[in-house]
Structures are given as C-alpha cells and as structure tokens.
Amino acid sequence: MSEDMDNTFEKKLDEQPESIAAKLQECAKSSDFQNKTVHPYTISYCKPLIDSNFLHRDILPYLSGNSDVSLNELYQSIPIADKKLSRDWNEIQENILRGYVAIQFDGQEHECLLVHASMPKGRDVNSPEVEFSVVGPKEAFVESLDMNLNLIRKRMPTANLRVKEMIVGSLSKTRIAVCYLESITNEEFVNTMIQRIEDLDIDFMPDITMLVQMIEDSPNSVFPQLIETERPDRLTQGLALGQVGVLMDGSPSGVIGPAKLGWFLIAHEDYYLPWHMGSFFRVLRHIAILFSVLATSFYVAILTYHYQVIPNNLLPTIVSSRINIPFPPFLEVMIMEFSIELLREAGARLPTKVGQTIGIVGGIVLGTAAVEASLTSNILLLLVALSALASFTTPIFRMSNTIRILRFPFIIAAEVWGLLGIFICGAFVLTHLLRLKSLGIPYLVPYYPLRVADLKDSFVRLSYGLMYKRPSYFRTKDPVKFHPGKAKIKKDIDE
C-alpha cells in the first residue's frame, strides 16, 4: 500500500509543469532577452522593448531597497500604475513581449510581478499626407494605437464612447480597437464588426488594409466597402453619425463602416467650406470621375463605329491628327493608357523628389515624342492627360485605384460593340453596385433604396441648419443631431 502511494506521489512530481523560472531561463537563449539577479529577486525582460532609464530610475531602486519583501508587498510599494501579479505563463510571456519587466522572488518560482516599462515608440503627430486639406485640422493618425485613441478621445470627450480591444494574429499579436458611441450607434453594426474581426484565423496582421480586405462584405469586388482614413476628424464625425471605427496598432490609418459609394467621392474639406462651395466642388468631382472613366472609351467607340456623329467642323481636325497613325484607335488608346499608368507607378515607387521629376519630365517627353513619331494623335494625348488629372480628384486612395482599373473594361467593350458596349459594361457595373453592401447597408443608398431626406448630404451638401438628422439608413438609437428650430435662432447681444 505504501509503495503504491510512493509511486503515485513520484508520478505526480514528474507530471508537475515546468516552473516559470525555468521557462524564463529557456527564453534567455535569445541574445536580446535578459535575466538578471538583484538579490533576492530575478528580473527578466526583452531588452529592445524596455526603456532602460525607466528601469534603473523607477524599478531597480525598490528592489535593492527591499531585500526581504514578498511579491505581494512589492506590488503595493512600487508606485507604477500598470502592474499585475500572474501565475499564467502565457500571460507572462505575452506581457514581456509587450514591454513588461517580470520580477520573481527567490523561492516563488510559479508567480511573477509584471511591471510595464516599455520604450516610448512611434513618430510624432504630423499633418495628413494622403487626405491633405487647405482648411481644417492638420493632425493625422500615427502607428501607435494609444496615440490614435488619444486623438479620438481629445475630439470626443464623452463617456458614451466605447472602445473594445482585441488581439489578432498568432504571431503578430496585433492590437485592434473597435470604437463606437453606445448612445447612438446601432448595435447590429458593432456586433457584426466585432464578430468578423474575432473570426479571423491568421498568423500575421501587419496593417489595417489587410484587415479591411478580410472583413468586407464582398472582398472580391473592386469597389471598397469600408472607408480608410488618416484623419481623426473624419473618423470622429463618422462615429457621431452612427458609424463604427476600427484602429490598429502599427497602422497610421483608421477604418469607418458602414459606408456608401457617395462618401468615397466626398473630400472631408467639403464640410469646412460654405455649403455653396462644398456643393460645387462635389459636383465637379463627380463629373471629373465620370469623364476619367468614359473619355477614352468614347474616343474608341466613336472613331471605330460611330464616326458619323462627329461634327463637320471637328472632322478635319481629327482626320489630320490621325492621318499618319499606323494603329487603330483601340491600340492607340491602350498604348497611351499603359504609358500613363507606368509613369504613375514609377513616380509612386521612387523617392518623393525623384518621383515628381519623373512624372513631369516623363509625361512631357513621352507625350511629345509619341505625337512626333506618329504613334498617337494630339487629341488622344489631350484626352488621356485630362482623364489622368480627373482621376486625381478622387479623395479616397482605394477608390482612386478603382477608377483607374474601370477604364480598361470600358475601352475593351467600346472596341467590341461601340457605344452599345459602353452601355452594356455600364449596366454590369451598375448591377454590381446595386448588389453590394457594407455591413449590410446597400452601397448606393440614399439613391437605392431612395431616401429623400438623406439627399441633403449626397451629390450636393446643403447648409448645416437643414441637416439636423443623422442618416436614416444607419438606424441609430438617437436620429436627431440637434433641434432644427434652435438652429435658426440668432440673438444679438442687446436682445
């Protein structure tokens, strides 16, 4: 009987888990991992993640001056807010890799005191580079999630702002924060966004653009369904309207959803201008985008099939410009379009100063050489240049890329069926847009389904006094932003 009990006891000893101290010693095989003894304590940390000045100034003096104090008493004495006691090795390991110092007391090999001592990281807040505006705030998101949340909280100091943090990526352990206003935002949007992020099974998540591609309603569509922005003011305004915001540690941009097609064609600067000017620039932007997509395809269709629609006054000019061109209009357009795309891609991949020079000089040299070599007509050169300029008016970068890609299906359809092909291709695009959704919201709202009240901030922007309600398609808990009657009252000081 006693022998059986001894064997059982020895078996339990063999099955005991390896101590935390032994696991920390195993981690020391990496040269940047430090295990140091400050009797009777042992401290462990990852050197590149630790602020050494903070360690020597605010942690080590309490260890050297308390040689007989337990971890519980040390926890009470160290004047640092971010600290915790833990017996879970996974938690200890994760926190060490996030900039914590693990402190062990001799004889307590299964418990650690974790003290936050990470090195300040990231760059300072700068002005937006992609969504630059002449008027309005000049702050942009940075790669630090805590700093980005600070920018959000600073603009929206309300207790209704909720932030839910999650960890994504088995290797990267990327922090993701979902932001929303509890008193306004529809819970269905919040739950959908959180569920899609939590369901991700991926090992590495380097940037929020990858996250967007994985949580969109239709990831195979060329049209973006979530708005990516580097402007804190744009994200906070979206939260106030009832949208959900997503931020990621290590990414200098945020995501807003649900979104509609019209918002991808709206510059946030429109809201900082008088409504007359803002509406004019919106209309100009919509016309420019249509021109960018359809200009060269109409050129191919008219010169290939429908040359009889050319006015008599313009016909001699077109004939003289194409008299020595050896290529059909389709091949001529494709050569020029690919040349423009090559210049644009080369300018984007080169350093800033060199890229600007390549874009300007390359465009002038190639355009002049192509006309003089009779490879293209000067009329087409003008159309392609105007189309490229028109595509630059798109405020959101992902939608700008979509506009660039859409040209080519229309050009091919124009070559095959002429104007009929352009209308067929347009019908396919429109059908696709009618089927698209963003977090369950129709992509073409408020035009389809029609919401007359929401047209106040769509193709044009009316005055703020008329936009006293939040968009109805968000189904917010509080649909009214302010009382419309009070907005018209303007009392003078002597009244």
From TrEMBL:
Source species of the chain: Paenibacillus cisolokensis
Highest taxon listed in the record's lineage: Bacteria
Entry-linked InterPro entries: Spore_Ger, UPF0353/GerABKA_families
Keywords on record: Membrane, Transmembrane, Transmembrane helix
Coiled coil: none
Membrane spanning stretches: 287-307, 355-373, 379-398, 410-434
Keyword Zinc-finger included in the entry's annotation: no
Lineage of source species: Bacteria, Bacillati, Bacillota, Bacilli, Bacillales
The protein's name: Spore germination protein
Sequence similarity: Belongs to the GerABKA family.
